[in-house]
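Revision sheet: structure tokens.
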Amino acid sequence: MMGNTAERPINKRDLIHKQDMNIVIVGHVDHGKSTVIGRLLADTHSLPEGKLEQVKETCRRNAKPFEYAFLLDALKDERSQGITIDSARCFFQTDARNYIIIDAPGHIEFLKNMITGAARAEAALLVIDAHEGVQENSRRHGYLLSMLGIHQVCVLVNKMDLTGYNERAFRKIERQYRRFLKRINVEPTCFIPISAMEGDNIADHSEKMPWYEGVNVLEVLDSFENETAQEEKPFRMPVQDVYKFTLNGDNRRIVAGTIETGRISVGDEVVFYPSGKRTTVKTLEAFNREPQDSVGAGWTCGFTVSEQIYVKRGEMACLAKEPAPKVTGRMLVNLFWLGKKPLVKGKTYFLKLGTAKVGMQLEEIRSVLDASNLDSRKKEQVDRHEVAECVLSLDRHIAFDLMSDIAASSRFVIVDEYEICGGGIVMHEMEDQTSWVRDKVLMRNYKWVGSDISSESRAEKYHQKAALVLITGEKSSPRKELARIVEKQLFDEGRFVYYLGIGGLMFGLDADIIDINMVPLNRKEHIRRLAEVAHIMLDAGVILIVSAVELNATDLDVIQTSVSPELVSVVWVGNEHTTDIPIKLHLPENDNLEASADAIRKHLSL
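Predicted:
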């Protein structure tokens, strides 16, 4: 029996050599999840020595009946409320493998924590109380597991002792819940009647239910199949940060993050998305660890590169020889909503995927589903506990994978007013209004041969940071005059600065797209070429000042696809703000251009 295979303390050496599996356990509040886990830990002798006796003695001294759930209740407020508030991880082993059990809360208020736990799981145990039967949360949890791509699901019908181990009660729940799972395309591995409190069908087969001839819980766990090894998938590492060193001539830049999938080795060519910048891994770095030539999924990793390119948090490191992730600012998603306020159009939220965090708007709701009863309808908002297929529009491009390709880099959460209010998976990438520019930028960065002089070295040499100042406004506004004054003031201070009037491009770079009336035949291409000139100037460390009449939000999107948004400042000159371009500084028209120029310099902290 499986229950007899683990009757010894866990040996750490065993944990190293066995295969691991993450299991999430879910279920309605008070249906017995914590008791199931406590019983698994006890029956596999995976508890610290004396822990079981200690908890039993505490219960005896307090005249409180012992429960296996107490083994997991580490927080006093959890014990007093009688519910599990946060996800907890527990470890145990059988002869087959090592298990990490993620206890995901079942109370409806803590569904978001359940989702965080489920996101790391390969299989699930779903607990239903034999006495209470299938509840709304039972159905919601089943749907969310399906949506997160967890299809190995075993349903544990717990507290069979409260029904007198009645087979009819078990079969009724099995029929009811199996019908529900079929509607969401989940084929459960099995249904097991158990009593976690009494230990029936946990580690050994119960003599109290002779009518049940299936596997026990430990046997079904060992029957679950591990996902395709994460190291065998394409390399994906969301960039957590870039660490720069200067002490004693140390000029390393270490790109750091946790490897979600795949493997990276010294000498590999790495591409960062969405920027498309590429370089080669020079060394692999780690704290308190021997130098390595290769490292794989699950490890926190840092590496130096051969060319000093500028990358930042939120980008995704991939290997040039492997399939690239998707990159866009629009996506078709399947999301769940847990916010107290509905998800609505016309409001900006934040979407977090990997280490990227970007402003997001709800563009379209294609369908809405109540996860507890699977009723679908057309709506103009997504209410609490509903699931929806939506189109999301992002403020800038990010890199991701589709759920069908790499689950880890397709899952996201949505933040509203500093709280996680929803999340989901990316089903498909969609074209956005700057896709045509992004493709050119990716090719440019792919072919770009970078300078050996880093942006930090240029900034130190010139005593400034590169910046693009877009001075725009109505046709009658003194944009050009103001731009020239700003340039002269900065130049006199010793800054590396250049003024470029957008009209100056027309008969040079834009000569092939200018009509007889001296108007660009293709405004978007006209703006793209300006952005490419700006990119080169900024790479050289210049403060570039550009004047142009009535730039709009679409123009800025094109520019910021080619140029890092954090380098761009938009100044509007004129009493009326006549376009939809977002601005950082508004200067009403006045006769004192020197004062206006001072305001721009102050805004730039120059």
